[in-house]
C-alpha cells in the first residue's frame, strides 16, 4: 500500500504488545509513523525524550517506521503528515467500546482518514504500559513484557520510586 499511517499512543513505556502491532502494521503501509502523544491531562512516568528514544531503539530494525511526537488532536497531526490511516490496537471488548467512540469522533472531524484496527496477539492481550510499570516498580520481572532496550528505563524508574 502506498499510504502513510500513524500509530499514536503514550508509549509510557513501549511494550512488546506495542512492538507487535508496529511490526504487523508496518508492511501494510509505505510509511508508519509511530507518534507519541503529549497529553498534559495524562502525566507520564517517562519524559517525552525517553519515550521517543525507547521507540527509536526498538523500531530501528523496521525501515519504513518513523518515530515522532505531537500534541493536540490526532486527526490534525495525521493530516499534517499526509496520513490516510490511523492504526489502533484492540486487546478486549472494553477497548472496542472506547476506541469506537474515538473513531466516530475522528471520522466526524476528518472523514478522509480511516481507522484500521489490529487485534493484539494472544500472548499480549493482558499487557498494558500501566501494568508493566506497576510490576517493575514492585520488583517483579518484566522479561518478555517489554523489549530488552526498555528494561534499563524501567530499572531507572524503579530506583527513582524507592
UniProtKB/TrEMBL annotation:
Give the chief site where it resides. cytoplasm
One Pfam family linked to the record: CTP_transf_like
Stored SUPFAM superfamilies: Nucleotidylyl transferase
Please tell me whether the keyword Transferase is annotated for this protein.
yes
Co-factor(s): Mg(2+)
Which GO terms label this protein's molecular function in UniProt? Answer: ATP binding; pantetheine-phosphate adenylyltransferase activity
Localisation: Cytoplasm
What cellular component terms from Gene Ontology apply here? cytoplasm
- Name the keywords, alphabetized: ATP-binding, Coenzyme A biosynthesis, Cytoplasm, Magnesium, Nucleotide-binding, Nucleotidyltransferase, Transferase
**Name of the top EC class for this enzyme:** transferase
Name the residues that bind substrate.
10, 42, 74, 88
For whether the record's keyword set contains Magnesium, the answer is: yes
Q: Where is this site: Transition state stabilizer?
A: 18
Q: Which residues span the membrane?
A: none
Chemical reaction(s) catalysed? (R)-4'-phosphopantetheine + ATP + H(+) = 3'-dephospho-CoA + diphosphate
Which amino acids does the record list as binding ATP?
10-11, 18, 89-91, 99, 124-130
* Matches recorded under InterPro entries: Cyt_trans-like, PPAT, Rossmann-like_a/b/a_fold
- EC number(s): the record gives 2.7.7.3
Q: How does it assemble?
A: Homohexamer.
Extract the PANTHER family matched here: PHOSPHOPANTETHEINE ADENYLYLTRANSFERASE (PTHR21342:SF1)
- The identity of this protein, by name, is Phosphopantetheine adenylyltransferase
Amino acid at each position: 500500500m502506498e499510504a502513510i499511517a500513524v500509530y499514536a499512543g503514550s508509549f509510557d513505556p513501549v511494550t512488546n504488545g506495542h512492538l507487535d502491532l508496529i511490526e504487523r502494521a508496518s508492511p501494510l503501509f509505505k510509511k508508519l509513523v509511530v507518534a507519541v502523544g503529549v497529553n498534559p491531562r495524562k502525566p507520564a512516568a517517562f519524559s517525552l525524550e525517553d519515550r521517543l528514544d525507547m521507540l527509536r531503539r526498538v523500531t530501528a530494525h523496521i525501515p519504513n517506521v518513523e518515530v515522532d511526537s505531537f500534541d493536540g488532536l490526532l486527526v490534525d497531526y495525521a493530516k499534517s503528515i499526509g496520513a490516510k490511516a490511523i492504526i489502533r490496537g484492540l486487546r478486549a471488548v472494553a477497548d472496542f467500546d472506547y476506541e469506537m467512540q474515538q473513531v466516530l469522533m475522528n471520522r466526524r472531524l476528518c472523514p478522509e482518514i480511516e481507522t484500521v484496527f489490529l487485534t493484539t496477539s494472544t500472548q499480549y492481550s493482558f499487557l498494558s504500559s500501566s501494568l508493566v510499570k506497576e510490576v517493575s516498580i514492585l520488583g517483579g520481572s518484566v522479561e518478555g513484557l517489554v523489549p530488552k532496550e526498555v528494561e534499563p528505563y524501567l530499572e531507572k524508574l524503579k530506583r527513582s520510586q524507592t
